[in-house]
Design goal:
The complex is a heterodimer of chains A (980) and B (389). With 980 residues, chain A is an alpha/beta fold. Chain A folds into four domains: 45-225, NAD(P)-binding Rossmann-like Domain (Rossmann fold, 3-Layer(aba) Sandwich), CATH 3.40.50; 233-478, N-(1-d-carboxylethyl)-l-norvaline Dehydrogenase, domain 2 (Orthogonal Bundle), CATH 1.10.1040; 490-637 and 684-721, Alpha-Beta Complex (2-enoyl-CoA Hydratase, Chain A, domain 1), CATH 3.90.226; 865-977, no CATH class. In chain A, the strands form six sheets. Chain A has an eight-stranded mixed β-sheet, with helices on both faces. Chain A has a seven-stranded mixed β-sheet with strand order 15-16-17-19-21-22-23, sandwiched between helices. A three-stranded antiparallel β-sheet of chain A has the order 9-10-11. In chain B, strands 1, 2, 3, 4, 5, 6, 7, 8, 9 and 10 form a ten-stranded mixed β-sheet that branches. Chain B contains twelve helices and ten strands. The radius of gyration of chain B is 19 Å and the shape is globular. Chain B is of the alpha/beta class and 389 residues long.
């Protein structure tokens, strides 16, 4: 229990950053939804030659896939050092080196040198070459590989710059048949793209095997590229960088302005072009650039972009290669001022001196939501930069269509997966409109690429009459977009069918073959009563389907499975003091989880990304899990001052009892305590560590490829249907007050040392009460219901404390956990315990009825929007929006306010005074009268609008009225549901 | 006393840092792979080899001190170890638990038996594998009703040291200096070969021949940088506390008559011993009362002492005891103490008693005191007189 709670900081939402690549927008495709995963080809052992960052990353990913690896390097000890480096890294601290999904995977990698241990590759089925990009070295390596490898083994090169034709030159005929390029991106574990390039002599089986292995085992999006310089991603990606660089130099622009223009507004990573180079390392670019310059013909547009950049050369020479460099300097740097506050500085390309970076706010950059074309057409400086660079880059990409084999969907996939673009170049052109873009090119005096001429103003991507995805070809006809078999994309299901049922936070979909899918899609991947309601409904739907549905799969099509409960909502309920409502939310959740667990049909969780808090609790109650390898699962509730209240404590105790119960009545309780109280240490950093941490069972499945997760989960569910028997309710033997005393002793020491705050201790004390079974004795079995009741009591007790509410409110406002000063109050732990409910039945009753122990916390009050001087109903809207209850809809604001004001004038209560006095919801929501008035206001406005419609001639005005009716109806329903 | 008990021999294993699952650097746990009962068995065999004149059948009892006698050091570890050491079945085995004072209590028990005429030969051993069995044991279940009345009953050791430092005004600087001195003395003793005769390498770790807690390169500046280990704004650090350690020790105690009859060469005669209690929240002061009682029973005073072994649970409590008992610091822990050497709870009592006898011989002094504090609020003390045939 080292470090204890101090390390919890940054846990709550922090690990979201570890998921480097956002889930790509997969274009709709034509593969049948229920296609089977192809049979796995046999790569049992692989060899990686070269133990640099890429080589060791590839070795780690192979080990992650369960493949034995030999990692050899020219230099003695280099391979061992690489493994050591990877063992130290975590996805959060050092994603570049965090290639191993579990430390045990390092044992699958055996090491050696190319001089002494080449014999080790003799039984390898696949040998990957990752030596320096120098042709003679490559050739020597290939010769050595060819000498030692077994016949029929596959050899691939991870080159990013050397054409296959040159690599294969002079090699044996047998070698050429087994040889191809597999181009990984760095960091190998987190970057989804893999480019495969085959030569004219490469056996087709070799290509098929590699496609399957890299897709299914290594989890990559495999794109087959032609043997052209830079293949696909680097060719276009480098063009963009050089084009942006040229624009900056030619027009003497500020770097931060260019980055602001070429960021999220146009669908590029938020750091912009220069910011991203700082992250990946300035020294990497020139190598690829020079190689492209050398191998591309003089006529290629790329050649016109070369500008001498002495400042960049100097930065590299001085080792200032970006954030990973020793000085952490690059195009940008952070400089602390006298008070220690950090200022962002940026280099001036012309003078080479750092200066304070400007805060750039382009009007045009805010138009991203209105579409790419709106950004381009705005005309301010940002818009001009974005247009100049994008125009040339997209035209360049479009012009490469033929050279790249005509598969424009593959090009888009490569740019999304390899460079984290939100949309590929062709999808971007589609967004601007092919006709518009072609015209603009013509207007600028540029030639219109053949693919755009062929499109004749039609979209580049479309759906055929069966709803399958199709792409434009150079002939002007649409061709189907192909993708590997065995992928079930929820987007396909959504496009071709209606939901079985749906609400704001979750939907039910028929996944085919008798499997019902629950799609969680709550706000920012959170869970709320709607999500829980839909989980309940899903069980009912299967039960009442008369055998139509046989199994349930719970999934989320977005990046994360679920990041936990909607804290904004929780904060609101707590600040209002609605304890009955809070208890209902807990009870409903617990009931839904128990129903999932004991349902007479299999329930499978399909998890990817974050599954925290309530999300983790759902998984703990599933009969089986299919997890994407990049799953980050944990019970993080204590970070916001509560305990898991939807059965998380109970389920973890049961698992720990199974795993460690033979070590006496205390050990598994301690393990559970550590897992929940130290979420930063116990939250999994992959699906593999989730197994070690008991969040997954040993027999739960792991899908390396996110695209295959849903199909794999469905297959898992179907495999369980025959002869399925639901689990029986279990009992727990918990140590009671003795166990609590033991944990309290440990807590006392942490408190004395200053490692835990006063409130940490309160949270921990309430958690131990649950985990030790309160006043039980370890001779007495407790039921699952007993633990669930304790969870609710502990949750409510904590929710009633000002500190917990302050923590939640702070997290809602800032997206990170609040840490109180280490010693908030000079009290002893004994005094502190006296503030907590004692071990008596009577005391437990009090928990449910007791009042909050303090007024609304300062943090909460400060977080409330300033409603002083507003009309009451305006204030209501402002606060509801702040809390995330109402979607921000600026267009309707005036109308809504008017409706609210109407209602308000009729309210005789002195609401305004009371509200201003308290500045919080507790004082704001005094009566049903206010609600009635608000509802009346809405009804009136709706009726008014409805009345106007028949007389309205203008179609646009009619639509506007209908829209405003719908919005007001939505708000009315929200207000009606609110428990005041 | 009707018959006198004498200490004939003293050996121990190397004392090595315990494995820490939270700090898996590979630098800790050199002896973690060795079972504690096996350590004791090897020391029993070692004592028998070095003292071949002792007929194994003459051994009355093997006593093993152990603070958390469970798991690999459970099942009456003394009996298990003596069987592993191939002693005759006729030899008895008793596990003794007085926490840190366990193996010193074993020596007291042997002396008392000898005095009562209830046996002539006793192997007094002590062991603790703090790697394999954590402090508090695997299943700590304290009594809540006692806690309600006396919350200090289970107070953690570090906090007792803070309490002592507070109560007796032991400054951080004094503690740091004391800890540094312990390391310096231990290093000097190592260089002088003073441990060569007592440390027995283990069969499964033959390359480990010396303790590994010792930090000869420590400086005042380094120690001053450490943060308090137990209390925010406290004064006790990891460096001024005895480290969590694996190890075992053994002392051969026989009656004076038996030694004479079998040609053994005793190091010291046990002339007084005692145990006493004190307030648990300042358990470090246990040696004060215990030492006074034992000295009185031996009929001598502090001024008569030539050699003092005072177990260094914490620098704070050691300094406070030195002050209260008015001990001559120059005579205390001449070969270094537990802060430098380590403190495997059950093994330390036999170590410091054996060490006191050893130094008495080496320095040719007359009287020695070995004393130590005990968690939960106790002290034990033994007074020795150099044996002159």
């Amino acid at each position: 229990m080292r470090g204890f709670l101090t390390k919890i900081a940054n846990m709550f939402f922090g690990s979201g950053k570890t998921n480097a690549a956002p889930a790509p927008v997969t274009p709709p495709v034509s593969a049948p939804a229920a296609a089977k995963t192809p049979e796995k080809p046999a790569i049992r052992k692989a060899a990686v030659i070269g133990a640099g960052v890429m080589g060791s990353g590839i070795a780690a990913q192979l080990a992650n896939a369960g493949i034995d690896v030999v990692l050899l390097d020219k230099f003695p000890g280099a391979a061992d050092k690489a493994i050591e480096r990877m063992l130290k890294a975590t996805p959060a601290t050092d994603p570049m080196n965090a290639g191993l999904m579990h430390r045990d995977h390092a044992r699958r990698i055996s090491t050696g040198t190319t001089d002494d241990h080449m014999y080790k590759i003799a039984d390898a089925d696949w040998i990957v070459e990752v030596v320096p990009e120098i042709l003679p070295i490559k050739h020597a390596t290939f010769k050595a590989i060819d000498e030692h490898r077994k016949p029929g083994s596959i050899v691939s090169s991870n080159t990013s710059t050397i054409p296959l034709s040159q690599l294969a030159e002079g090699m044996s005929e047998g070698f050429k048949k087994d040889f191809l390029i597999t181009h990984f991106f760095n960091p190998v574990r987190f970057m989804d793209l893999l480019e495969i390039v085959a030569g004219p002599e490469t056996r087709p089986e070799v290509v098929e095997t590699m496609k399957a292995v890299c897709d299914i085992d290594l989890g990559k999006k495999v794109v087959v590229a032609q043997d052209t310089p830079g293949f696909i991603a680097n060719r276009i990606g480098t063009f963009l960088i050089q084009r942006a660089m040229a624009e900056t130099i030619d027009k003497n622009l500020k770097i931060e302005a260019v980055d602001a223009a070429l960021g999220v507004a146009v669908g590029f990573p938020k750091d912009g072009v220069f910011g991203l180079m700082d992250i990946v390392g300035l020294d990497l670019g020139p190598k690829v650039t020079q190689s492209l310059q050398k191998s591309l013909p003089e006529s290629d547009a790329f050649q016109n972009l070369m500008r001498p950049v002495p400042t960049l050369d100097r930065l590299i020479a001085e080792g200032k290669t970006g954030r990973k460099s020793k000085t952490k300097e690059g195009f940008y740097r952070m400089v602390p001022d006298a008070e220690g506050k950090k200022t962002r500085q940026v280099i001036d390309l012309a003078t080479g001196a750092y200066r304070n970076a400007d805060k750039v706010n382009f009007e045009s950059a805010k138009l991203g939501r209105k579409g790419l074309r709106a950004v381009m057409e705005h005309g301010d400086e940002g818009s001009q930069i974005a247009w100049n660079v994008l125009r040339d880059t997209l035209a360049y990409a479009a012009g490469l269509t033929e050279e790249m084999g005509g598969d424009i969907a593959a090009v888009d996939t490569a740019m999304r997966a390899g460079y984290n673009w939100k949309n590929g170049p062709f999808a971007m052109i589609d967004k601007m409109g092919t006709a518009w873009f072609a015209q603009k090119l013509a207007d600028s005096g540029m030639s219109v690429p053949p693919i755009l001429q062929a499109a004749k103003g039609r979209k580049l991507f479309t759906l055929d009459d069966k709803g399958n995805a199709a792409q434009m070809t150079l002939s002007g006809d649409y061709a189907p977009v192909t993708r590997p078999a065995g992928i079930l994309d929820l987007a396909d299901v959504k496009r071709t069918s209606q939901p079985v049922s749906a609400n704001n936070s979750a939907s039910l979909w028929d996944l085919g073959d008798g499997v019902l899918g629950v799609e969680l899609h709550g706000m920012k991947n959170t869970l709320d009563p709607d999500s829980i309601g839909m989980l309940n409904e899903s069980v009912d739907t299967v039960l009442e389907s008369g055998g139509k549905y046989k199994a349930l799969v719970i999934c989320n099509a977005d990046k994360n499975f679920a990041v936990g409960a909607n804290l904004g909502l929780a904060a609101r309920v707590m600040n209002m003091g609605q304890w009955d409502m809070m208890d209902d939310i807990l009870g409903d959740g617990q009931q839904a989880m128990q129903r999932l667990k004991f349902a007479p049909f299999p329930v499978v969780g399909a998890v990817s990304g974050l599954a925290l808090g309530g999300g983790c609790e759902i998984l703990l109650h599933c009969d089986a899990i299919q997890a994407h390898a990049e799953s980050y699962i944990g019970l993080v509730e204590t970070g916001v001052g509560i305990v898991p209240g939807w059965g998380g404590c109970k389920e973890y105790l049961l698992r720990a009892q199974d795993a460690y119960g033979d070590k006496g009545p205390m050990f598994f309780v301690r393990k559970t305590f550590e897992a929940i109280m130290l979420p930063n240490l116990s939250t999994s950093t992959s699906a593999h560590t989730a197994k070690s941490n008991l969040f997954l069972r040993a027999e739960d499945g792991i899908s390396m490829n996110r695209d295959r997760l849903l199909a794999d989960a469905k297959a898992k569910a179907l495999s369980m249907v025959d002869g399925y028997t639901p689990p029986q309710p279990r009992t727990l033997r918990l140590p009671g007050p003795e166990g609590k005393a033991a944990l309290s002793m440990a807590l006392d020491d942490f408190y004395a040392k200053g490692d835990a705050t006063w409130h940490d201790i309160r949270v921990a004390e309430m958690l131990t009460t649950v985990l030790t079974g309160d006043d039980t004795d370890h001779m007495k079995p407790l039921s699952e219901t007993d633990i669930l009741r304790l969870e609710r009591q502990a949750f409510l007790t904590l929710a009633k404390t000002a500190q917990t509410r302050a923590r939640i409110q702070f997290t809602v406002n800032n997206g990170r956990p609040l840490r109180e000063a280490p010693l908030v109050r000079p009290v002893t732990t004994a005094e502190l315990r006296a503030t907590l409910p004692a071990h008596t039945p009577k005391a437990r009753e009090i928990v449910l009825t007791q009042k909050t122990d303090a007024p609304a916390p300062a943090a909460s009050a400060a977080a409330m929007p300033d409603v002083k001087g507003m009309k009451p109903m305006e204030a209501v809207i402002t606060i509801l929006k702040k809390d995330g209850w109402l979607p921000a809809a600026p267009m309707q604001d005036a109308k809504l306010s008017a409706a609210f004001n109407d209602a308000a004038q009729k309210t005789k209560q002195g609401t305004l005074e009371r509200m201003n006095k308290n500045k919080g919801m507790a004082g704001l929501l005094p009566s049903e009268k206010v609600r009635e008035e608000i509802l009346k206001g809405f009804e009136g406005s709706i009726a008014k609008a409805e009345g106007k419609i028949p007389a309205t001639q203008d179609a646009e005005e009619k639509a506007r009225l209908q829209a405003s009716m719908a919005v007001m109806a939505h708000y009315r329903d929200v207000v009606r549901e609110l428990k005041f | 006393m009707s018959k006198h008990a004498v200490i004939v021999d003293y050996i121990r294993t190397p004392f090595t840092k315990a494995f820490d699952p939270g700090n898996d650097s590979g630098k800790r746990g050199a002896l973690a792979h060795i079972r504690p009962d096996d350590m004791v068995a090897e020391l029993i065999a070692g004592l028998m080899e070095r003292n071949a004149q002792v007929n194994p059948k003459d051994i009355e009892t093997v006593l093993t001190g152990c603070a958390f006698p469970e798991a690999e050091q459970g099942f009456n570890v003394a009996r298990i170890a003596l069987m592993k050491a191939k002693l005759p079945d006729s030899v008895g085995g008793v596990t003794m638990n007085r926490f840190c004072g366990s193996s010193m209590h074993a020596i007291h028990d042997a002396a008392a038996h000898i005095a009562a005429g209830a046996g002539d030969v006793f192997l007094c051993t002590g062991v603790e594998s703090m790697s394999r069995i954590p402090m508090g044991g695997w299943t700590p279940l304290p009594n809540p009703s006692l806690i309600a009345r006396r919350p200090e009953a289970y107070v953690s050791m570090g906090l007792t040291a803070e309490n002592v430092a507070n109560k007796f005004k032991i400054s951080r600087t004094a503690q740091d200096a004391f800890a540094l001195a312990s390391h310096r003395k231990a290093e000097a003793a190592r260089l002088a070969g003073n441990f060569r005769h007592e440390i027995v390498p283990l069969f499964h770790a033959p390359h480990i021949r010396m303790d590994d807690n010792l930090r000869a390169d420590s400086t005042v500046e380094m120690l001053a940088k450490l943060k308090p280990a137990f209390k925010a704004a406290g004064s006790v650090t990891a460096a001024t506390s005895s480290p969590i350690t694996d190890g075992a020790s053994a002392v051969l105690v026989v009656s004076e008559d038996y030694a004479k009859a079998h040609g053994l060469k005793p190091m010291a005669k046990i002339i007084g011993f005692s145990g006493s209690g004190c307030a648990p929240e300042i358990m470090g002061m246990g040696p004060v009362e215990a030492s006074r009682k034992a000295l009185a029973r031996a009929g001598i005073t502090v001024r008569d002492l030539d050699v003092i072994e005072l177990n260094e649970a914490f620098a704070a409590q050691a300094l406070a005891c030195i002050g209260q008992l008015q001990l001559d610091p120059a005579k205390v822990n001449r070969d270094g103490g537990a802060i430098a050497l380590g403190h495997p709870l059950g093994a330390s009592g036999a170590r410091i008693t054996g060490k006191a006898a050893q130094i008495l011989q080496r320095e040719e002094g007359r009287f020695a005191l070995a004393t130590m504090c005990i968690g939960g609020g106790q002290g034990v003390a033994t007074v020795l007189e150099r044996y002159v045939p």
